[in-house]
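Sequence in, structure out. Go.
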Amino acid sequence: MPPQVTVLSTGGTIASTDGEGGATPSKRGAALVDAVPELGEYAEVEVRDVALRPSFDMDFETVAATAHAARDAAVDGADGVVVTHGTDTMEESAYYLDLALDLDVPVVFTGAQRRPNEVSADGPSNLLTAVRAAVDESFTGRGGVYVAFDEQLHAARDATKIHTSDLDAFASPDASPVARFTREGTRLLRKPGSRSASVDAIESSKDVAVVQSYIGADDRQLRSVVEAGADGVVLEGTGLGNATNALGEAAGSLAEDGYPVVVTTRCQGGAVAPVYGSPGGGETLRDRRVIDGSDLPAHKARIKLMLVLESVGDDLAAIRAAFE
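Output:
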C-alpha cells in the first residue's frame, strides 16, 4: 500500500487566479493536486479544503482549523500532512502548528510565488517537494512541522520569508535547511524533527501586540496597546535586544508589575543577549523581569506568547519557563 498523504488547502498564491480587482484564491485543493500527476509516484493523496484565503488576511480561527484538520488526518491514518498556504504568513501558521501539535507524522507547508497561470509557476514543483518530504523515511514517524520551498525543507521554527518575489523565497537564518530534494533523492543536512516544545493549546483568544523600538521611540504605542486590553506584548528591540530608554523604562515597569513582556530583536540573525545597562539596555530589561525571546523574531514570539498565555494563564513564572 502506498504512503497516505492528506493535503489541506487554505488558499494563497498557489491557488490564485487573476480577476477583476486583482488576483484572488479560487482553486480548491483537488485542482492543485490534479495539476501534479507526479504526486502519484510518491503517495496516495487525499484532499481536504480548509479555506480559500490570501495569507496576508489569514486569521487565527483558520489557523486553528488547519491544526485540527492536521490532527484529524493523523488520527485517520495519514503518513504525512501537506498544507498549501500563502507565503506572506506561512511561517507564522507553520510555527503555530509546530507549537500546538504533537504528532508522529510530519506536517509540511508549501505554496507559491507565482500564480498557476503565470509563466513557470512554482506551485507544482513546491507541492511535489512537500509530498516527497511528507513520505520520506527520514521524516515519517518523527513529527515536526516544516516549510518546503524551491526544493528545500526548513524547520518551521527557523523558516522565514526573505524575498517578496524570488522563487527561492525562504531561508533559515542561523541554521541550514533541514534537507534538499533533488532528482537523485533526499539530501539530509541536519537532524529532522521539531525544535519547538509543544504548548497545551490549539486555539487562543489571547491578544498579544508587537511594539517596535527605533530611533526616537517613546512609550506611547506600548501604553496604548496595554490600555486597549492587550494580554501581553512583544517588544521588538534593536541589536542584542535593546530599546530606547523611554520604551525600556515603560516595558520594565510593566514587567515588574507582572505583565508579560517578551523582548526580541529586529536583526534577522542571532539571539537577544543582556549586555547593556541604562533603562533600555538588555541587561536592565532582564533585571526588571522582561522575558528573553531568544532568537525568535517578533511575529513568532507573539504566536508563542498567545498560546502560552492560553495554556498557563497569567502565571509569569510558567510563561518565563516556556520561553526558556
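Check: Residues 4-188 form a domain with the Rossmann fold fold (CATH 3.40.50.1170). The two ends are 43 Å apart (CA to CA).
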